[in-house]
Amino acid sequence: MLLPPLLWRHSARARRIILRLDLRKRAIVITLPPSVNRQQGMQFLQSQSQWLAQAMESLPRTAIEQGYIWLEGSIIPLLPTITMDGRTRLTEQGLHIGHPSDEHPRYVRSFLKRRAEALFPSLLQHHSQRMKTRPTKLSLRDVKSRWGSCTQQGRIMLSWRLIMAPPDIYNYVIVHELAHLTHFNHGPDFWALVDAYTPHGQIGRKKAEKWLSQNGANLLAMI
Description:
three-stranded mixed β-sheet; globular; 6 helices; about 20% strand; four-stranded mixed β-sheet; Zincin-like; alpha/beta; about 40% helix; single chain
């Protein structure tokens, strides 16, 4: 049985080994009392075969496990393909992956990062010219707590996972962060600037915020 990630915790108050399934992180949390080491904790986990089977069964299947991903708001089928070079290729039929299924998450993640790296810098330049702002640097990261950020020095950070969202969504996030170069707050002038350059104005901004609120967890859990 292929185990999900294991998260180890030590607790001075724990009197026994405690097993818990974290659905959001898709991981098993193992809490150990002070007198128990990880080897003993692993032996205990392996002895709980019935609990482990039920825990694995209750884990929701990821999009990749179901054979698809999101790309710019569209559902893209994953197509295992035997190739000589093992390349990952996007065609009208779907995303062809020339690697075993257990390696698909790694190659899909790499593919999505490359797509974000190819698209987001040009969009940042496009919107910065429209908004007459001058960002100094763009970095793409995998951050769980925010979709973007901006420093007073002009450094913009975007989550590469936004490449899975529809174009109006990631364009809104880019405009939002660039607006901070003019108004480093969330006051009325800031939102007026965001609405002036977000696709479809205030309505588009509110739709984008609602979409991220409803679908953000899916972007984080997809890979």
